[in-house]
Known about the structure:
Elements lengths: L2 H25 L3 H38 L3
Helix pairs in contact: 1-2
Amino acid sequence: MSDAGQDRARGRWDETKGKVKEAVGDATDDDSMEREGRKDQVRGKGEQAKGHVKDAAENVKEGVKGAFDDD
């Protein structure tokens, strides 16, 4: 799995984990766990975005490289 793919997978995991924590916190009336769950979700979305940016940068790099290759 690429570095970008790992970032996206880690992000999905953190987001899912956060949703579970938020739901458990809500069900048990634990405000601290709810907040922690929301933080995990934000962190997960950030990791996924980082993975997408890495992919985009790689695509640009390949496009520039291809533009200067002699065919």
